[in-house]
Amino acid sequence: MINYLKLTFFQLRKKSNIINAILVSLAILVVIGSNYYKKFYNNFKLNDSKNYLATYMLQVDKREDLTNEENYNTLKNIENVTNISYMYEFSDVIHSDLFKTDKFSGDIQIYNSSNESLPEIVKGTNFPDNDGYYMVCPINFYPESLNNIKYYSKKDNFNLDSYLGKEIVFDYNGYMFSRNLDDKYKFEIPIKLVGLYKNANNYYDESECYVNKKTIHDITKNEYTDLEEDYVYQINHPVYALNVSSYEEVEKVEMSLEKSGYNYNRMFYFDENETQQINNTADLVYNIAIVIIFIFIFLVFQKDYYEDKEYYRQLNVLGFNLKEIKIIYFISLLIKVFVYFLFVLVITIISMLVIKILTINYPFILSKLRVLYSFDGIASVILIFIFNVLLSFMIHRHIGKLNV
């Protein structure tokens, strides 16, 4: 057996075998990559995007034939609605000097929420009541403008553990009315950080915190100081923001709104048809890649064989019989398969190390990309190799004497 291996390795030392190994490895990566893309896209877009706050939020216009209170109660009582707020009290930006560093501005985005619509709490609690000022922030926290977050790295995370259960003083102003330079319109509010929530997998919520209704109501009311006419108009002509319990329940809530005579819009529309089209395209690329790589590997095996005919002829002249030459040929096929997989493994490991380094250091946008295992793609490649090895061996066995 040792002699067979020596003879096989001697025959495999050609430069063309190394080139073939690289080409086949790249072809294998195409198959695995196309399968990985579909898995990644489904996980990133189809599954995780459905957990994005805006994908299960609706913007609803007031029914003019009902009072504000009647509108509010009607919408609140719709099944699967977990929170209702006025659009002018839906979101805001506040600042804390405690969060300001050389890297971060100390600004955070806040959203109106109820306990029913909060993300998963991993530390602390949800809002204990609606009488005080309470806040829930992400466990991976970056007190910075949403536009800048993607340029930070994971190691820049601002640890909130020491602030949990404590009041933090925030300041805010009438920035939305271009009054942020006037000290008269600068206000402060102490908000208690009661919990930390689990960050989303595919969108940037690292500077997004949730507050209870009283908190954002009082903030908004102060921002409308000396703008009573505008404030009254907002109150009398409200647009409502509805949180739905899950993405799957959005259509049910929409049907209820239509039956109740409300006009509405989705705050973020998730197009499942587009997703299905992309999946179909990924399937097509995957299937084409499977066929191409099968043909490619088969041709490589045949090319190698015919290039090595002279070597097998020499073995035959040296006294090796047909059975022994077949063994050497079969071993060479197995070694080539092993080498091809070794190339793929090395390339994959290097790629994963590069991704890991980038996600830890820079930029932060890459930390939302997750490595998913593509067992289907790997299994397909293994089957292709097994079939090609057997097919190649059977073809040349059928020819007889391996053409030597």
Descriptive overview:
- It contains eleven helices and eleven strands.
- By secondary structure, the protein is of the alpha+beta class.
- It folds into two domains: 2-48 and 273-403, no CATH class; 54-267, no CATH class.
- The strands form two sheets. Strands 3, 4, 5, 6, 7, 8 and 9 form a seven-stranded mixed sheet that branches.
- The protein is elongated, with a radius of gyration of 32 Å.
- The protein starts with a helix and ends in a 5-residue tail after the last helix.
- The model has no long low-confidence stretch (mean pLDDT 77).
**Tell me, what's the shape?**
elongated
Residue runs with pLDDT of under 50 for 5 or more positions: none
Query: Could you state the order of secondary-structure elements as H and E?
Result: HHEHEEEEEHEEEHHEHEHHHH
Strand count: 11
- Class by SSE composition: alpha+beta
Largest sheet: 7 strands, mixed
**Rg result:** 32 Å
| Portion in beta strands | 15-25%
Measured as a percent range, the helix fraction is 40-55%
